[in-house]
Amino acid sequence: MKITGIDCHVLLDPGYDADATSSNQDTIVVEVHTDEGIGGIGETDLNAWIARACIQAPGTHTMDRGLTAMLVGADPLDPVALWDRVYAGTAMTGRRGALVHALGALDMAIWDICGKAQRVPTWRLLGERGREHLTPYASLLPRAGQGFDAFAETIADQAIAASRQGFRAAKLELLTRGPYAHEGLAVGDDRLVEVIAAVRKAAGPDFDIMVDVAYGWDDWRDALAVIETWAEHRLFFVETPLWTDDLDGYAELARRSPVPLATGEWLSTRFEFRELVERQAVHVLQPDVGRVGGLTEARRVCELAARHDLRVVPHGWKTGITVAATAHLAAVTPHLPYFEFVPPTMAESRLRRELVRDELVLGADGTLPLPARHGLGIELDRDALAEFAAAGARLG
Ligand SMILES: [Mg+2]
């Protein structure tokens, strides 16, 4: 089998809000075509126009090949060897960041092709069955227009609603400080524990609560002082307490924090995760399947975590394509207790609601069945795709 071409769809929600702090208003969707008529679908969490440039740019020498130039003509049925070859061949434009994120979309599509070619769900090619069902968690990020008290009340209500829907865990996005800080949520750190306590009280003792502070603190000592006040509410983890480059801070905090630390949503390649792990700077690894470099690299991060007895809880804030790819990873990873899953019914993003009809539907017990369709099991809504592509084309 040979790859014959790659289509890039730059998609945008026509009603996008340029002041929102949310990467699910746009996306890049790739379709990889082959000479046997089998096609694969992937996406990644990166500025969609930059992703398209990474994929379509020409190269002028042997170490700066464009991704399309390297992939057209290649056999898609050995994705790991192909990944390694493309990683080396794009070294001068890639190795980390945007190009690896873009490669992630293509790798996802190639694994989709492999599953379809062998007429099995992709997870069967990724490894042994690691679990009987999948357990997602709900990310809760209410609009923050009315001040902190209204926000606190809304997020507690959402947590209760999620637990009623069957979810066994939810993540509270407490974005009061740092680069994601929401206007109108500027309160002292001492108020945050009120929200956590209210959710714990409402959701009961068997519900797992995660907290995301989105790079809120500059100093690990400040983070520790606040996190210590949360410990009695038994949090599953606190996500990205410090800036992603502050490895010294993570290492200090990880040694002392009474709550496990989670990070890694922005990282690309297993090498960036290896550094965190070897410095004992994290407890829960959060690769985003697209950004880390695709299923090939996400699986390697899971292997790294297993060797160090750490858990993986993937990031996923995109469309049903990322949800599908993450579900396949979860199916073969026993140390992946939860993955991020915004049900289309709860999503603000039209892309999440309309682009893909989910194969997997949350059961009343809070679990999803293992994927059963061939490949990644993604079905695109072509009308929605055309509308979002037209909106994307208006912007550039
Ligand atoms: Mg986050």
Keywords:
11 strands, 2 domains, 396 residues, 40% helix, Enolase-like, domain 1, 13% strand, TIM Barrel, binds magnesium ion, three-stranded antiparallel sheet
3D structure, described in words:
The protein has 396 residues and is an alpha/beta fold. The chain has two domains: 3-123 and 380-395, Enolase-like, domain 1, CATH 3.30.390.10; 126-354, Enolase-like C-terminal domain (TIM Barrel, Alpha-Beta Barrel), CATH 3.20.20. The chain contains 15 helices and eleven strands. Helix 7 (192-203) links the parallel strand 5 and strand 6 (208-212). Helix 10 (269-278) runs parallel beside helix 12. The protein starts with a strand and ends with a helix. 51% of the residues are buried. The mean pLDDT is 94. Magnesium ion binds at residues 212, 214, 239-240, 265.
How would you summarize what this structure contains?
This protein is α/β, with parallel strands linked by helices and 396 residues long. It has helices at 48-56, 67-71, 79-89, 97-118, 123-126, 148-165, 192-203, 220-228, 247-256, 269-278, 289-292, 295-307, 320-331, 350-354, 382-395; strands spanning 3-12, 26-34, 40-44, 136-140, 169-173, 208-212, 237-239, 261-263, 284-285, 311-312, 339-340.
